[in-house]
Design a protein that fits this description.
There is one protein chain. The chain is built from three helices and 13 strands; from the N terminus they run ααβββββββββββαββ. Strands 1, 3, 4, 6, 9, 10, 11 and 13 form an eight-stranded antiparallel sheet that branches. Strands 2-5-12-7-8 form a five-stranded antiparallel sheet, with no helix packed on it. It is globular. Pfam families: 3keto-disac_hyd (PF06439). InterPro entries: AL/BT2_dom. Keywords: Signal.
Amino acid sequence: MINLNLFKKIVVAVFISCLFYSCKNEASAPNTLTEKEQKEGWQLLFDGTTLNNWHTYNNEKKAPTAWVVRNGTIYCDPNNESQKYDLISNSDYKNYEFKFEWKLEKEGNSGVFVNVQERPDINATYHSGPEYQLLADSHPDFDKPLKRAGCLYMFLPQQNFVNTKAKDDWNQSSIVQKDGKVTFYLNGTVTAEMDFNSKKWKDMVKHSTFKDFPEFGKHTSGKLALQDWSRGVSFRNIKIKQL
């Protein structure tokens, strides 16, 4: 005779296990949104198979590029000898939370630019857009505080020290910008804060190596850009929520 109480307990346990496994898969599946994220207004900027939300800076679409989709990631191939072009979002953004995962190959170096102005008279993304630095701990520049991962490149050191993850693990980053006030996060820790409207920022730019670029750091909206660099960099789970 079947023990009904035992049977019920087994059914409940199996149900809970299946529910947990389903939720875990939903939360961890790369390049997808959970139901919660969809309700909160998140949008994917990379579907895992195409570059539909991106193009090379100043629309150099016909030029050979090192950017490819590989194994569910946006990958910049260091062995590709094509001329270097940064990858830039099709849309402009002003107030938002932007999340992405990334990893670098040994001694890798890359970056994500914000508030980029895409115009023929501006030759590169970094001539207008400040940079969220991406740098492997193995890179020779790691000992330079203004160049470590998560910092506001060449302006602020990491507000809180954070190591990047091991070579084969993914780093989690986010950028939150609201009315020109920006906060950078690396692996859940705040690494930089700045008000792009402030006198402090304007003075910093005036005394920086970017002072000769007339449009640099003067905008609080624009495109997002991924930096093409000489060492391999991979991105995935790229998503944005407008605030």
